[in-house]
Write a structure and sequence with these properties.
Elements (H helix, E strand, L loop, with lengths): L4 H9 L5 H9 L5 H8 L8
């Protein structure tokens, strides 16, 4: 699990972050593509 996974998931689950913000967290290497799918329920795509 990435260091910032819990933070990103918490923000998304509380409605503070959109899928775009979670996508940006992958771009910044805060979370992995697999973790993106766990958080959003959707497969990661390079383009949003």
């Amino acid at each position: 699990m990435s260091k910032k996974y819990k933070t990103v998931k918490n923000f998304y689950d509380r409605g503070l972050w959109s899928k775009k913000r979670v996508h940006d967290a992958v771009v910044k290497s805060w979370i992995t593509k697999e973790e993106y799918m766990e958080i959003t329920g959707e497969e990661y795509a390079e383009e949003v």
